[in-house]
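quick one before i forget lol
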Amino acid sequence: MKIDGVFSGGGIKAFALIGAYEEIEKQGLEFVRVAGTSAGSIVGALIAAGYTSKEIYQLVGELDPQKLLDARKTLIPFKFAKWLLLYWRLGLYKGNELENWIKEKLELKGLRTFADLPPKVLRVVASDLTNGQMVVLPEDLEKYGISPKSFSIARAIRMSCSIPYFFEPVRLRTAGGMNILVDGGVLSNFPMWLFDKDNVRKSRPVLGIKLSANEYEHRKHKINNGIELFGALFETMKDAHDSRYISKRHAENIIFIPTEGILTTEFHLTEEKKKALVHLGREHARQFLNRWSY
């Protein structure tokens, strides 16, 4: 059966998304259109390119995550230089390696720009800090005077994955000046709303895969100091928009995969943890799909 799919952000925890995709394939479900944010945009793009779950696992498994941490070269010791990088470059790592890796894998399937895909087969979310607004790629590129069809898919994925302070933001040069774009998770980490229009019947079931516990089981933030306050502030900002939508729809079409205990930027994951995340995603997808009435 053909369905549409939405993949949440979650950084390195995306191995759980791959496990869920494996079970979705096993159940005979096929994605027609996909959307995602951050790590979810990477998985979504690879699915749109035609990769199977086993192929995606192999591609990601062969990648050394440490290679993605492409800090700028400096004569200053990194522990001191990182503060300068944050101040002047707005991020610890460039993000070029991430974009190049995605570009290479998509080109193997003949994909370079959004013109190589049917309309709306792939949509990803980024955050425009300059204008203070959410950006849905590729369609919102028209607002910047840029042709959506001519835009690099890999560059769009990089925008969606540019975790603030961790990766340098993407600078989008337009006729109106320079715009700073970062991780879509800042404004919508789980854009399931992209497939929802008031009073319009869906042409296919929409299945969401979210790297968190059910919204009604969300753990409370502990706030005892300034650092914990910042963490709670960022998490609330990231999830509030999507939580309101999810509660409205009663979460009947979402696979929740709790991944607490693993950091989004834990790029030194062991093989055991990677396999455990894949297994976690597979099992939660299996339990959900066995009772899903679409």
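fyi The chain has a mean pLDDT of 85.
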